[in-house]
Amino acid sequence: MRLSRYFLPVLKETPAEAQIVSHRYMLRAGMIKQASAGIYSWLPLGFKVLKKIENIVHEEQQRAGHIPMLMPTLQSADLWRESGRYDGYGEEMLRMKDRHGRDMLYSPTAEEMFTDVFRSYVKSYKDLPLTLYQIQWKFRDEIRPRFGVMRGREFFMKDGYNFDLTKEDALHAYNRHLVSYLRTYERMGLQAIPMRADSGPIGGDYTHEFLVLADTGESEVFYDSKVTDISLGKRDIDFDDVAQCQAVMDEFTSLYARTDETHVEAEFNEVPEDRRRVARGIEVGQIFYFGTTYSDKMGATVVNDQGDHVPVHMGSHGIGVSRLLGAIIEASHDDKGIIWPEGVTPFHCGIINLRQGDDAADAACESLYSALIAAGLEPLYDDRNERAGGKFATMDLIGLPWRITVGPRGLKNGVVELTSRKTGESVEMPPEQAAAKVV
Ligand code: ATP
Ligand code: MG
Ligand code: MG
Ligand code: MG
C-alpha cells in the first residue's frame, strides 16, 4: 500500500475523551471512529488488524476441530423465553419489536440459537462430539461503555458451543478450548493467563477466564507469579488426545490464579509470599462447562447406545475479538505509539522515503516495495511529499515492526537504514539485505 493512496486519518491532538492508552492510540492512528456511545466505525487500519485477529482465531479453532458457521445478530425472543433468559438477562439485552409487534433482540451471546440448531438436526450419539462456533457481532447495552473497543456496546466476539454425550467428553472439550485459546493468544504476542472465575448468569461449576495483565484492566486478579513463566510455545498438540489436553490444563491451572470473585485469602496465603501478586487484568476470553442446563430446558437430546434419550452436555467458550485490539495495545506500546506484534501487525514493514522526488531515493523505494510484495509481505510505503519528522511520527504511531528509511545520503554509500520498532535499534545496510531481514 502506498500511503498517498491509503485512507489513514491520523490525529495530531490527543482526543480528550480517551482515558487509556489503547483508546488514545486507536483514535490517533485512525483505526476507529466513535459512531455513538460504545459503537465504532472500523476505519481501514483498525479493520485490517481486526481481520488479522479474526483469522488467527479461525485458524486455531479449526485446528482444534471446531466448525465455523454464522448466526443472525437479530433473534426472536421466543427461543430466549424457552431458556428463561429473556426475562432474566436484564438491561444489557437490546430489545426491539418488528412491524408485526413481535419481540426481537440483538444477540448478546448465542447459547439458545446454537442449542436450537443442534436439536433440530442431531439425534444420535453417533454424531457427537460436535463443536460449532461463530465470529459475529454482539450487542450488550453496557451501563458504562468505555475505554474504546475494550468495553463497547457493539463488539466482535468468537463464541463456540460444544455438544457431548457425557460430562467426561464435555470436559475434554473444555480442555481443548483452553489449549486452543492459549495458542491463539500466544500467536498474537499476548500472555493471557487462565484464571478460575465466576460463572455468572450462564451458570455451571467449571469456568476459567483468560486475563492479560495490565494496570488499566477492569478485573482484580490474584496469582502466583510462577504462572507467568509458563507458555505453550511450539508444542505439537493432538487435540483428540484426552490425556495431552488434560496435562496442559493441569499445568496451566494448578498454580493459584483467580479473579476477585473466586479469590480465597486463606488459599492465596499458601503461595510463598515473594510470589504472591495482586494486580489488574483484561478479560480477553472465557470458557464454561455448564452440563445440561440448556439442553434440559430446550430439549436438546440424543439417543445413546442403549436407545435412551439423554440431554447433551454442553459448554460455551468466548473470545473478545474486538477487545483484543485494545488488550494488545495496552500490553505493547511506548510513548510514541503502538508496537504491533508480528502476528497481528496491519502491515509488515514501513518504507520511508526521506526525499520524495529524488530519482535515486524514489527508485530505491520502488524496488524495495516490489521486492517485499514479491516475498508475500505487505509493506506500507510512505511516498507522501512530507517532512521526514512527520513521516517518522506517523510510522511510530501506527507501530509496524520494521521501518526501512531511504534517503539520498545513505544511498550514495549504498545503504538504507533498518529500524526495529520494538528495540528502536537502527542498522545501516544495503537495500537487498534490509528486505531480506524483514522477510
Ligand atoms: P466483562 O466481564 O468484561 O463484562 P463478560 O464476562 O461479560 O465480560 P463474556 O460473556 O465472557 O463477557 O464474553 C466473552 C468475551 O467477550 C469476554 O471475555 C470479553 O473478552 C468479550 N467482551 C464481553 N463484553 C464485551 C464488551 N462490552 N466489549 C468488548 N468485548 C467484550
Ligand atoms: Mg459483561
Ligand atoms: Mg467477565
Ligand atoms: Mg466473561
Helix content: 25-40%
Number of helices: 14
Residue windows where pLDDT falls under 50 for at least 5 positions: none
Rg, nearest Å = 24 Å
Task: Please summarize the sheet with the most strands.
Answer: 9 strands, mixed
Q: Judging from the principal axes of the Cα atoms, what is the shape?
A: globular
Family: Belongs to the class-II aminoacyl-tRNA synthetase family. ProS type 2 subfamily.
Protein name: Proline--tRNA ligase
Keywords: Aminoacyl-tRNA synthetase, ATP-binding, Cytoplasm, Ligase, Nucleotide-binding, Protein biosynthesis
GO molecular function: ATP binding; proline-tRNA ligase activity
Q: Could you outline the blueprint of secondary structure elements for this entry?
A:
Elements: H1 21-28, E1 32-36, E2 39-42, H2 44-63, E3 67-68, E4 74-76, H3 77-83, H4 85-88, E5 94-97, E6 103-106, H5 111-121, E7 130-139, E8 154-164, H6 167-187, E9 193-196, E10 206-213, E11 219-224, H7 242-253, E12 257-259, H8 265-268, E13 276-291, H9 293-298, E14 301-303, E15 309-311, E16 313-320, H10 321-331, E17 333-334, E18 337-338, E19 349-353, H11 359-374, E20 379-382, H12 388-398, E21 402-406, H13 408-412, E22 416-420, E23 426-429, H14 431-438
Parallel strand pairs: 3-7, 19-20, 19-21
Antiparallel strand pairs: 1-2, 4-6, 5-6, 7-8, 8-16, 9-10, 10-13, 11-12, 11-13, 13-16, 14-15, 17-18, 21-22, 22-23
Bound molecules: adenosine-5'-triphosphate and magnesium ion (3 copies).
